TrEMBL record:
This is polynucleotide adenylyltransferase. Belongs to the DNA polymerase type-B-like family. GLD2 subfamily. It catalyses: RNA(n) + ATP = RNA(n)-3'-adenine ribonucleotide + diphosphate. Its cofactor is Mn(2+); Mg(2+). The gene is TENT2. One of its GO terms (molecular function) is metal ion binding. Signal peptide: none annotated.
Amino acid sequence: FPSVCLCPQLSGQMVDLFEACQQQSSDLARKEMCRTQLQQDIQLGRLYLTGSSMNGLGCRSSDADLCLVLKGNKRQDPIHVLSVLQRLFKTLSYIERTQLIRAKVPILRFREKGSDLEFDLNVNNTVGIRNTFLLRSYAYADLRIRPMILVVKKWARHNQINDASKGTLSSYTLVLMVLHYLQTLKEPVLPSLQRDYPECFNPLMDIDIVPEGPKHIPSYFSRNQSSLGELLLGFLKYYATYFRWDKQVISIREARALPKSNSQEWRNKFICVEEPFERNNVARAVHEKIKFEAIKAQFVESSRILQQRKDLNSILPVRTIINKESSRR
């Protein structure tokens, strides 16, 4: 590998964007304070902060995800539980704007009163707790991971391909796509942590000890010396030219692209990204050809432009995003 950093300008811009936008400890403290308060008011079970707030991949503007793990083990209808909570929340002085959203995983969305801090609360979606700590382990395995993922999320959001509710990619899907690329380079930046440390990520592990699992993982040393800029260029190029959308399933569990089988899960799906614990398709929101084509076209276009210009501003309004982020909280 060249000892001089290729794309120094691009790499520097990525670091700047990351440092301006990454979640601060004060942001997390506010979310944790709200969780603690809610935990005292909700006696139905245990509340976990999950998602990007907890996995090291959050922005200052990220909303907070909460998972309520109910006491006892009798099956309860999430919609019913959330409606009960919705009534309770209307009596709480520090919560406002509660709305029940009936998605595949139903959520109660609400805000902390007088702030722009938004929460999404689900019931018993415990896989969300498992993958929070798996992604956290990847996020801290190499110093390049967190800036890389934050930039990719901002790029996708700016180019309107990061919204599962509108038939494009969820942030979770994007994260898995970045990790897959980094695992499959000739000189990988990341291993498969599930393969190398199965005992830390056992899908049957009791949910209470899931947060302890990753603490026993030694830090990973990659021989890949590529700069952030080179990795971003490589990521865009990989999905623009090499990845076979019609034939391959992304699996970070196996650190490779699996051949697409004819099973119900992958048949007739435009984008196939395996959930590392449940092994279902996390990219199932992309079900319209027109949206799929727009996503592919965006990879091709951004790859071409960035290859030429090697300036992050050519695919993303860096200053605008930084200003928007710093005015948020």
